[in-house]
Amino acid sequence: MANYRSYRKVSSDMLTAGTIDPAKLVAGVTPDYCVKMFYGHPCYCTPGCCCNWQVPSGVGKLTIEMWGAGGNGHGACTCNRCHHYRGASGGAYNTKTISTSGGCQYTVCAGGVYRCCSRECNGCQGCSSYVNGYNLSGNFCAHGGARGCANPDWSVRCTSTNWCCVSPGTWGGDFAMAGHQKGWSGHWNCHCGGAVTNAMSSGAPFLTSEGVETNHNECWMRCGCWTAPYATGGQGAMTSYCGRCCGQGGQGGSGVVRITYV
Questions:
Q1: Quick check: is 134 in a domain?
Q2: For a tag on the chain, would you pick the N or C end, based on fewer CB atoms within 10 A?
């Protein structure tokens, strides 16, 4: 026999759009929407951040986004001539949405950087960020950014490049992306007298800006800044002067992991 309980059900097509908003609902009816961030300190020599994270009770879904650490910038590796440059790149991006439940545990690691400023022609690649745990494959990660490089060759120039070609499903995620590595080639000889020399590291997709530009137009040597924004490539050393000591490149920014859970 039909009763009141069987008739009082309301389906979505019976309601006019916009008539019921979250403020009119009893507390606890809608799921909580929260974000947890993991990252290393913003100073040079950042080790990143690795820890164990437990899913709060009542949570049923995670969206994990991550960025690898930025690559270190190049040094000025020859003291008696000018250079061509390719800037360090920001860390790659990866994301995945999965089902989970309260109490599940995940190992979360936001990648760090190689803890030394580079005096060589080539810097060091940034470390990868990764997450392991329930309902994830063992290779879910985002690679660290490409290292900066320089050369003092008279004719071999540094060109910009897509340092890492990726597609959906790369590194165990739903969608991945790597940034562009920028290149600049200067004059063929020592270029004092007001000529501008320029180098630029790149940022991280969906996280930081275009990158960090470095330039000067004096007859001098400059080192890269010791720090960089999160997941951004480190600054490289620059020279427009022959006969002075070599400069060192800076370090990239820490990797980042962002978990949105509901």
A1: yes
A2: N
